[in-house]
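Notebook entry, structure prediction.
Reason for the run: the old model in the group folder had no record of what sequence produced it. Starting over properly, with the input documented here first.
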Amino acid sequence: MLALAHTWVAKLTTAAVLAQLLIGVTASPFDAVLAIRSGTVAPNQECSSNSDCRSGNCIEWQDIYTACQRLTPSGDYAYNCNSGEYYFQDYCSGVAVGQACANQGECVGRCSKGKCVKTVSGKTKCKTDLGCSGLQVCRNSTCFLPAPKSLEPRESCKGDTSCRSGRCVTDLAERFIGEGIYPVQPSCDVFQKGQQGCRNFYDCYDAACLNATTTSYGTCQLAPDGERCVANFQCQNVCRADGICYTPAPGSVRKRDTCTESSQCLSGACNDNDFIYHYRPDFTKSDNSTFEWVSDLNCAGSPIGGKCITNDDCDAGTCKSGVCKGKPLGASCASKTECTSMSCTIPSGSKNGKCTKGSA
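New structure, fully documented this time:
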């Protein structure tokens, strides 16, 4: 998973500031409380409950998505959400069409002459989806009303009915693109297993995209042997290093190659707690010129006494006559994995030592 940079943003004491603006004099703490309780807190300012806000909606901080719905007076996003910046403060959402607004950042729609009004698809200019009313989204700086079930996975959206997957979500979980990073705004979900409508494997969360062509959509299903794949979860069995689904013979999969169960491995152990990244063809391009890093289960190496074909199959010792064998006590060694005792004592300043009994 890609790591997110969590940036703490200083919590503003907006209650007192709001009170000063509302009554025009120096505010006491009691005045600040009255201001909040009156339901007069402006959009994008701190709140503690829905009743505090003019919009009637106090957004609780949760993740990148909620931080990125906070706007500037000009209607831009207040934070660089692609950096993973969080905002640890609840704040009021923008007001709906028909309510009073002081600037574009306070309105879900267009702020015109002090009132939030509906936007016109194809005409009203915008900076974010929040600058467009209803189900309209911002495309090429202009509000646009998508046709029902027309938006592709990962396109920003305002409602389920606009998405081909039937789901407009704020917690889109990625398997390939920026794995694990949530979108900065509501986006159309990818397809689940069994759903029809995928263009390529990026559109499916837990399966491969089968039977898709340049003129028709495919279906998200587990791929049988012989079909292309990028990760194990797309196959009925295992995704081979060359990107083809196959069924491995029992005990045939070597160390660090992908597996789904231990019986497939030469060592007898498929590591369910040791995912490693594999480099496989990206089949969204006909010439397979690009590759995709994916994380999959892999076969462990064999211990002393385990099966092997070459030394690379052994986690410890060397491969002799199909068995991983360690060196005896007193033999020269450069690491503990060479020794049957799993203990190699190396003198200070030396590269090599001797196999020793080790600690009990």
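Summary: The longest helix spans residues 14-23.
The old model has been moved to the deprecated folder.
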